[in-house]
Design goal:
- The chain is mainly beta and 210 residues long.
- The protein has three domains: 3-65, OB fold (Dihydrolipoamide Acetyltransferase, E2P), CATH 2.40.50; 72-120, 2,3-Dihydroxybiphenyl 1,2-Dioxygenase, domain 1 (Roll), CATH 3.10.180; 136-195, Signal recognition particle alu RNA binding heterodimer, srp9/1.
- It has two helices and 13 strands.
- The strands form three sheets. Strands 3-2-1-4-5 form a five-stranded antiparallel sheet, with no helix packed on it. A four-stranded mixed sheet has the order 6-9-8-7, covered by helices on one side. Strands 10-13-12-11 form a four-stranded mixed sheet, with helices on one face.
- The longest helix is centred in the middle third of the chain and has 11 residues, at 81-91.
- The chain is globular, with a radius of gyration of 21 Å.
- It starts with a strand and ends in a 20-residue tail after the last strand.
Length: 210
C-alpha cells in the first residue's frame, strides 16, 4: 500500500488531503478512515491507503495511520513567513506540506517544522519584558544529520547563509558546523555519528566489569 502524509484537514466537514509519493494531494473523507477516529487525526500524520476511483475523481480509501510512535514537531516564530519558507525549501531542502494564513508546515525526512507568525514569541507570557528583549530560540540548538556534510556546507556558503562556527571534526567523532537561519535560529549540521562506537575513555580497564 502506498504511504503518504496528511497535509490538510477540515474536522468540521470531515475531509482531508494526503500528500502522495508523486507529490500530489489526494482527497479522503472521514468514511475512508480505518481503525482511527477522524477527530484525532493531525496534519503531518503518516498514513497508508488505497486509491478509490469515483465519479468525482480518485480519492484515498482504507486510510490507516501508521503505528503510533513518538513524534517531535518544532514550531518557530518567524518575522516573515515567505522569506523563512523560501530559506527552508530552496536552501535547506525541506518540502512544504501545507500553507495556511500565519502557518506553514515543512518536512525533511522525519523532521517536521512549523513556521508561525510572531505571536508565538509571546507564549508563555513574557510578562513585563519589552518586545525588544525577546530573543528567538534562547537555549535551543536544532540538529540535522546529513551524510554529505562537506557538500552541504559548501552549498550553504554559496547561498550566503550565516555560518556561526566553521566545519570541523569534533572529539566525539562527528564533523559539523553551526549556522543561523534568517531569524537567527541556531542549527548544528552534523555528519552521522556511529552511536555504537565505544570511545576509549568509556572502555573498561583491566579488572573492571564490562
Amino acid at each position: 500500500m502506498p504511504q503518504g502524509t496528511i497535509t490538510r484537514l477540515n474536522h468540521t466537514r470531515g475531509y482531508g488531503f494526503i500528500n502522495t509519493p508523486e507529490n500530489e494531494d489526494l482527497f479522503f473523507h472521514r468514511s475512508n478512515i480505518m481503525d482511527a477516529q477522524f477527530s484525532l487525526l493531525q496534519v503531518g500524520d503518516q498514513v497508508t491507503y488505497t486509491v478509490q476511483f469515483t465519479s468525482r475523481g480518485p480519492r484515498a480509501d482504507q486510510v490507516q495511520v501508521e503505528s503510533p510512535s513518538v513524534k517531535l514537531q518544532v514550531n518557530l516564530a518567524v518575522k516573515d513567513l515567505r522569506v523563512s519558507a523560501a530559506f527552508y525549501t530552496e536552501t535547506f531542502d525541506f518540502k512544504e506540506l501545507s500553507n495556511n494564513p500565519g502557518y506553514i508546515l515543512l518536512k525533511r525526512n522525519d523532521l517536521i517544522i512549523g513556521l508561525k507568525t510572531d505571536e508565538l514569541l509571546w507564549h508563555p507570557d513574557p510578562g513585563e519584558q519589552p518586545d525588544a528583549a525577546l530573543v528567538r530560540g534562547v537555549g535551543v540548538e536544532l540538529v540535522l544529520e546529513i551524510s554529505d556534510i562537506g557538500q552541504f556546507h559548501a552549498r550553504m556558503q554559496q547561498a550566503g547563509v550565516t555560518i556561526h562556527e566553521p566545519l570541523k571534526e569534533q572529539p566525539w567523532g562527528a564533523t559539523d558546523f553551526r549556522m543561523l537561519d534568517p531569524d537567527g535560529y541556531y542549527w548544528r549540521i552534523t555528519s552521522p555519528r556511529d552511536r555504537d562506537v565505544v570511545h576509549a575513555e568509556e572502555e573498561p580497564t583491566e579488572g573492571e566489569p564490562a
